[in-house]
Write a structure and sequence with these properties.
By secondary structure, the protein is an alpha+beta fold. The protein is built from six helices and 13 strands. A hairpin with a 2-residue loop joins strand 4 and strand 5.
Length: 272
Amino acid sequence: MLIETRDPLLLGRESEPALNFKQGDIDQGAWAGQRFLWIEDRPAFELSFWCGTCPFLFKRLEGASRTLSIPELADRLAVGIAGIDVEVVSAFADLLPSGLYQPLLTTIEPKLVFPMKPGDYFADEQVATWNVERFWGLPQYPQTPYYRTFETAVSRDAHLYEFVVPMVPPNWNDLMRVAAMANQLAHSGKPTAVAVSTLDVCGPAMSVGTRDFYQHWGLTHFLLDGHHKLQAAAELGVPLQLLSLLAIDFSLADIDQIRKIPQLLDQRTATR
């Protein structure tokens, strides 16, 4: 559920951000390299390919080995923010590459999902549209547990899926901190996690061989702060807040599609 949004802001660092979006090497005969999210000097996630007709993707790589929390904001975020906090936005924006970002403050109810287990988007909804990967004969594999939080219809021919992707898997979390956060969440839904987000709009070029032909709008929140909060909320089945900075310049979506996101997040949940 949407709490608050702001107009897009020019945020981020011109040089040496801790987190960056980059293109990989272009192979001979290819028109583009793979799309990646980097943490410092290592690729952390492979993302959906540029073409827009390839399957939606986030896939954890070895560079996703730490969180990007800001200790000075820990207490403020543990209590939770009442609205979009300019100081919090500015502090996390300093980790990001320069570009346009739309701040979004929402309430989410995370459900932890494991690849190839019940609820896995890649083995369920994605296979219904793209079928399995042709060479391997298997669904796309994200190489990480992740959280599903929301979905809703965009139109008859498009559907929004929302994900929160941790930088490190839940089994890396400190269980005492998870328990402490669970105690806080039991009394308040305002503890706030922070993420940088992308919107990738993907759909197969042809309907041949698909059971359910439509566009997949993948809204992916890469978690910067709040790994213990997300785990605690998922285990308790309770909501918490998410402050996300939607990276307009680094998404696979046009500006009209980006502009629809606040409205879509305010709709009721609807499955495909």
